[in-house]
Design goal:
The structure is a single chain. By secondary structure, the protein is α+β, with helices and mostly antiparallel strands. The protein is built from four helices and five strands; from the N terminus they run E-H-E-E-H-E-E-H-H. Strand 2 (23-38) and strand 3 (43-60) form a beta hairpin. The longest helix has 13 residues, at 107-119. The chain starts with a strand and ends with a helix. The model has no long low-confidence stretch (mean pLDDT 97).
């Protein structure tokens, strides 16, 4: 199945550790969404926003990888699944259930996300914009 990462799972080392079968395919943009950070965990989330994009990484994952991600993302308590169509195929990602206000991420978490942006060759301007709310 296809999985869209936009936060710490962009980090190839972390993603491989969590999901041993995962294969990074390419970078893609999720249209009409924006990146933010929220919850007591100060973690990445996406929310609908017209004319915005969230850059991310497209991964092929196995069923067992999906189960591991469900545990890590605290599905369905913290995150729920969101599906969209990309290139004629269904893609799964996670969005937070409770849309609390913006919380600046911890330095450690942010460094993992920044490394993921580098791994996937994403434009840092979207990450910087999300941090300047």
């Amino acid at each position: 199945m296809l999985y869209f990462a936009y936060g710490s799972n962009l980090n190839h080392f972390q993603m491989k550790k969590r999901c041993k079968d995962s294969i990074y395919l390419k970078k893609i943009d999720l249209q009409n969404f924006r990146l933010t950070f929220r919850s007591k965990y100060r973690a990445a989330d996406i929310e609908p926003k017209k004319n915005c994009i969230v850059p991310g990484g497209l991964f092929e994952i196995s069923k067992s990888d999906e189960k591991k991600l469900d545990v890590y993302e605290d599905f369905p308590v913290l995150y729920k699944k969101h599906y969209f169509i990309y290139d004629g195929r269904k893609v799964m990602t996670y969005t937070m259930v409770k849309k609390s206000s913006f919380r600046f991420p911890s330095a450690r978490y942010l460094n993992i996300v920044k490394k993921g942006y580098k791994d996937c060759k994403l434009d840092n301007k979207y990450l910087e914009k999300a941090l300047k709310i």
